[in-house]
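B., you asked whether I could sanity-check this one before it goes into the benchmark set. Here's the sequence:
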Amino acid sequence: MTSGDYKGPVTAEELDELRHLHAQGLSRNEIARRLDRGQRTVSVYAARLGLSFACTVTEEATRVRKAQLEEKRVILADALTDDALRLSAQVWEPTTIHSFGGKDHTYNSQDINEPPAADKRALMAAATAAAAQSVRLVPPAEDSGAADARSMLGRLFSGLAEVVKEEQGHEEADGESP
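And here's what the prediction gave me:
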């Protein structure tokens, strides 16, 4: 049904069909298609009949779709991270430069220990872009583990302080001065 097409008042037969289709578990949109009525019309008359359309199916489908998209983002972020690593490694790898030129359009190539500076900049720019996109797709966890590290270092420092005190106590007991 197109917007603005008035089909006339809803008939008793259509209301019965609406009840029947609803009982079959069809969605509001599917009922509207089958009755050739607008979605709003179906919603209004369903409400008048005390019928509601459960959102659980839609909610579950949305949840599943979001999970699928999250998985794809993680896969893409992983691939982008791999790309960034490969690109940054190329900055220091031997390469071959090619040149075409001269009035005879000659071709020359030369193996060199690492890419020219302009190529290094381009590789690093591409690696940076890939890494940045990876982080945008899957941001790092908020908890970077800094609190755990500080806690561990604090316990280590306390333990070392106790050892030093014990050592000083043993030295004083033996008659040695620090």
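One thing to flag: DSSP finds six helices and two strands in the chain. Otherwise nothing jumped out at me.
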